[in-house]
Amino acid sequence: MYKRYIKRILDCLLSGLALIILSPLLLVTAILVRVKLGAPVIFTQDRPGRIDSATGKETIFKLYKFRTMTDARDPVTGELLSDEVRLTSFGKKLRATSLDELPELINIFKGDMAIVGPRPLLVKYLPLYSKEEHKRHLVRPGLTGLAQTNGRNAISWDERFGYDLKYVRNITFIGDLSIILATVASVIRKDGITSETSVTMEEFKGHSKREK
Question: Which of 4, 97, 112, 194 gives 107 a disulfide partner, CB atoms 3.0 to 4.6 angstroms apart?
Fold first, then answer.
């Protein structure tokens, strides 16, 4: 009952309420992003969502976030510079406090995402998943999830997918509530913001020895 009906109702109500209550914070953050990083204020990117029962494939949606990087490019090639170079101190603070994630409340209200669920990753990773890993898309992706409360960007991909699949197999109201509370504590402690090899999240390159 909770997984099929109540979870979506709560997501819609809570995200709508949060957008109203946090509107001053959203406005102030948007102004600061515009002043310090320029336009556009909102960063959008295609991300895979829940698997469509009709097509059997992940639904692609536009993810909304406050931008945290500049558009600095190589003067010779015109290519964007690395994340390490483009991520400013202001952008790092936005990520550390998770303020950059607030526009995802719009995605939740629209139904693209849930408050709790596996984090939406990059579309380019889809062909690299094993059959089991694709099951993380049997539910809506979340603003936070079990992996985010157990290491965030600092854990390995195997661990991250393991937590995602564990969540998909056992979705309960108490479980979601505990993840939300643990997320708040994790944000306060600023846990797992970076991986050992990247200022954001280590790139997923697939499993060369595993069934795809």
Answer: 112
